[in-house]
Amino acid sequence: MRREIPLLITGIVGVVFVIQYFIPHWPFNRMNAWFSDWFSIVQACAIWLGALNLIKISIQKIAKKKKDWIYSVVILVFFLLITILGFAEGEEFREPGTGFTWLYEFVYTPLSSTMFAILAFFVASASYRAFRARNLEATLLLAAAFFVMLGRVPIGDVISGFMPQGAQLSNLATWIMTFPQTAGQRAIMIGIALGIVSTSLRIILGIERSHLGGGD
Amino acid sequence: MYPIWFQKRPLFTVLSALTIFLLFFSVSAFAQDNSQIDTTIAVDTTLAEIRIVPPSSVEVSDVGNDAGGSIDIHWQLSPEDQNGGPVISYSVLRAESVDGTLGDFTEIGSVPAGASTYADGNTVDGLKYVYKVAATAASGAVFESGDSIPVSSSAQWFDMRRINVFVGVLLVAGFIVYYIRQAKAGKELFIRKIAGLDAVDEAVGRATEMGKKIFYVPGTQDMDNVQTIAGVTILGRVAEMAAQYETWLEVPVSRSLVLVTAKEMVKEAYSKAGRPDAYHEDQVHYLTDDQFGYAAGVDGMVVREKPATIFYMGAFYAESLILAETGNSIGAIQIAGTGMPSQLPFFVAACDYTLIGEELFAASAYLSREPKQLGSLKGQDMGKAVILIALIVGLLLETFGIWNFSTLFSVIE
To answer: Contact at 8 Å (CB) between B300 and A71?
Structure first.
């Protein structure tokens, strides 16, 4: 029963989700919203599982003085600090001037932005590796990237200003993005869509059941 | 002292004077009456100038392919409805019709001049309604159309606009079910090699040889995303190999529901591999729901613990390159798989192997080598073949303008 009931629920919900797309009649037209609401409720309740797991792992690490345990102290301190502030400041905890807002604006947001900003450097290093002309494909990639990048900045048109309108770098970049790039991306999208159909069908039919807790 | 004629006929004189007075008064009164009549006529003339022809041909119909509760109303505009004309708006009036008896008309909405349609989205299915449309002039005068025929709304049991999707799903599902049956019957199915999946064994083996950890990152989305399900499914296979090789597998997750599923998955995989004792509760652990917080957490662990192998399987956004480049910087062998087209180039650039789109969904079946699962892969490939044929046929037909083939594939959201 431990496997059968989840399988049955998965199968029924899967079939309902498929047919509700084609049937506008009540109650099928409401099912998507109902299931989404239930998922949100389960998700909201489950957040405690994550939080408790984080606390448990961190405490264990500190207690056993495992390697890099000091980071667990930082996690615990800030976890407790922001939770306590959030509850202590009541319903207005997100108002300007509260401790919670201060932490959010002056600690969380800058840290988050910093992580995002690092992406620029990673793009540069990854591009350097990807664009090395080792073989035909990499050379084509390099050439396409060269034209697209140059065509996206004003200097591209200045350099190619003497050429016919269609051959100017900005137009060339637009052409590469509109045709070869879109065609390639659509091919991937079709594959993904078929993969999703296939995976969903395996799950609905109970052929793929390892996500219910391992085993086949 | 009186004039001679008054002295001779006094009564006649008084009566004559009275008659003349009365005559004069009557004429004056008549003249005054006439003047009032003339004024009235002038006012009527003004009204006639602003009188407008009401809208006509009010047609009503139930909105198709919907959940009911809606009726569309169309009408012919008033001829005076022109730019700068006297019509400023149209009011839509509705009355219920019960057993042929018409109730009172009430206004249910209005549209500005120039509009000839209105959608009444507040009807009771099965109840008949009669509509009329009134043009409102700038003076406030209202000119109503005739009544529409009675109409009622109803819900449909099939959205005919999605018939093409339905046929497509049936076709692909039919292929998949057919090949699953073929596989179950013992037929040998050819499945093309996927380099990224063949490398899983090698990647786990490398970590074992080096005595280092394996990191498995199942994306940053929740269990309602099919990519996360695919990622967690592959985790089961990887965990089984890790258990067999006795290599430490660490799974940092960013969603609570993924934590629960992944824990169960890894635990079962260790049991299946005959090593339930090797499983540790803290192998699968939660970091944070926050995208960049999670990326920072995983990056920190990668830099400190320097795993030999890292898997990225699931749905990723901007954090993909942050994670993959950090893994690359420590020299880990990296295998990624995602269905996010915008993140694929990043993984291709930073990882050793990348499962592109459909390969992520094929991974579980490919690694398990079960006939039923492989059958579904074959069915998926057949679906791809059908789409390829449709693309070629469509390309030819559209190029030569023979038929508007692409409309067959238009999808209503």
So the answer is: yes
